[in-house]
UniProtKB/TrEMBL annotation:
Transmembrane segments: 12-32
Membrane topology: Single-pass type II membrane protein
Subcellular location: Golgi apparatus membrane
The protein, known as: Glycosyltransferase 2-like domain-containing protein
Principal subcellular localization: Golgi
Gene Ontology annotations for the cellular component aspect, listed alphabetically: Golgi membrane
GO-annotated biological processes: protein O-linked glycosylation
Pfam families xref list: Glycos_transf_2 (PF00535)
Family statement drawn from the similarity comment of this UniProt entry: Belongs to the glycosyltransferase 2 family. GalNAc-T subfamily.
Cofactor: Mn(2+)
GO molecular function: carbohydrate binding; metal ion binding; polypeptide N-acetylgalactosaminyltransferase activity
Protein's organism: Aphis gossypii (Cotton aphid)
Length: 443
């Protein structure tokens, strides 16, 4: 009697334990499996249809509207494939650098041009100034009177001065192309980069000499830059190659994570670099430009430009500045310090992630000397998954000249029109007809 009761209790315990383990197994399967049961196939099919509908919707609306061709379609496929596995828009944190802002350059009282002020010429200097003006199409006498390390006023908006930027950011290499540039403007550009860039973020400065003919830009320049507190190298083209190919030479030697292109007659203002890199570290497919202030070609006074304009173009494919429309101000919540999405950029001054620069295809080597490369790069960015922005808290001054002092093999008009037509053919699809209608003598 006792033995039979014992066996009955044992069987109940075994059955209860088995049921418990079966229940646990079912819960584990439900947790790690998307679906269970006869409806699983239908649900899976439904998910597949959903993805297919997304692809159809994307291809039917976005692609034609943006004018993407087969190359861009391949990029889109790769983007969708990559997005399933990893985020390729960010940097691994161990590759980023801590930084601290540079102190402002102290004003040297009594010296010419300090605080960004202009130089007043004496009457007896006027004749020689006009004579030498033709060499560079700016007042070289005034430039040579100004210190290479001159101070500037902090012209940023008040809110910009108190903005907080990421504590870890990528490094940048500065690429500056020059051809027969004046000594003082070239070296003032270099010193403004050194004096106003966080040292840990400034990897190097690369000066690309595009077949200059002036003696002081030879060994004298190499000896001088060897003494600078930041690694600075002089690269030289074998023959006159033009801005586009010279920049490609510089980009090939970049070791920083970000390439920052500058012209050879600029002055970087306080806090110019941090706002640019702060946008790229958030998304390495963001291409950023500073507000380009004006340095007078006559007095070298530093004049702050408006932050209420963005880059556009007309149907002759000439770059133009236009007033920022209300819709963009609304997108920025009326915050004038917020990044401004711009249709195109001026092209002389911008920062771009090095890997993304080559993912885009870099510059079109079929374009000659100068002209149109800014629109071509702008179209590349927008049509290949990137974002192009002007950063109002970043300011760089630039010497604007009425005309170029450089020669263009074949003539300026021929080269510029050739480049513009190439932009239209490659990137504008049927919209290129507007360009040809405005330029009937081309093609």
């Amino acid at each position: 009697m006792f033995r039979s009761k014992f066996r009955l209790h044992t069987c109940k315990i075994i059955i209860a334990t088995s049921l418990l383990w079966i229940f646990i197994d079912i819960m584990v399967l439900m947790y790690y499996t998307d679906c269970i049961g006869p409806n699983c196939k239908a649900k899976s099919s439904s998910v597949g249809n959903s993805e297919s509908n997304f692809d159809d919707q994307f291809d039917a609306t976005a692609a034609p509207r943006m004018g993407w061709g087969p190359v861009q379609d391949n990029m889109l496929d790769r983007f969708k494939h990559n997005s399933d596995h990893s985020d390729d828009t960010t940097y691994p944190s161990h590759l980023l650098m801590r930084w601290k802002p540079m102190p402002p350059v102290r004003e040297k009282r009594g010296k010419h041009g300090e605080g960004g002020r202009g130089v007043t010429m004496k009457p007896e200097q006027e004749a020689i100034m006009k004579q030498k003006f033709k060499e560079n199409q700016f007042n070289i006498i005034a430039s040579d009177m100004i210190s290479l390390n001159r101070s500037l006023q902090d012209i940023r908006q008040g809110e910009c001065k108190s903005k907080q930027y990421p504590t870890l950011m990528p490094t940048t290499s500065i690429v500056i192309v020059f051809h027969n540039e004046a000594w003082s403007t070239l070296l003032r550009t270099v010193w403004s980069v050194i004096n106003r860039s966080p040292r840990s973020l400034l990897k190097e400065i690369l000066l690309v000499d595009d077949a200059s003919e002036r003696d002081f830009l030879g060994k004298k320049l190499e000896d001088y830059v060897a003494t600078l507190p930041v690694t600075t190298k002089v690269l030289r083209t074998v023959k006159r190659s033009g801005l586009i190919r010279a920049r490609l030479l510089g980009a090939k030697h970049v070791t920083g994570q970000v390439i920052t292109f500058l012209d050879a007659h600029c002055e970087c203002a306080d806090g110019w670099l941090e706002p640019l890199l702060a946008r790229i570290v958030l998304n390495r497919k963001t291409v950023v430009c500073p507000v380009i202030d004006v340095i007078s070609d006559d007095t070298f006074e530093y004049v702050t430009a408006s932050d209420m304009t963005w880059g556009g173009f007309n149907w002759k494919l000439n770059f133009r500045w236009y007033r920022v429309p209300q819709r963009e101000m609304a997108r920025r919540n009326q915050d004038r310090t917020a990044p401004l999405r711009t249709p195109t950029m001026a092209g002389g001054l911008f920062s771009i992630d090095k890997d993304y620069f080559y993912e885009l295809g870099s510059y079109d080597e079929g374009m000659d000397i100068w002209g149109g490369e800014n629109l071509e790069m702008s179209f590349r960015v927008w049509q290949c998954g990137g974002t192009l922005e002007i950063i109002p808290c970043s300011h760089v001054g630039h010497v604007f000249r009425d005309k170029s002092p450089y020669s263009f093999p074949g003539g300026v008009s021929k080269i510029v029109l050739h480049n513009a037509a190439r932009v239209a053919e490659v990137w504008m699809d049927e919209w290129r007809d507007f360009y040809y209608a405005m330029n009937p003598g081309i093609g």
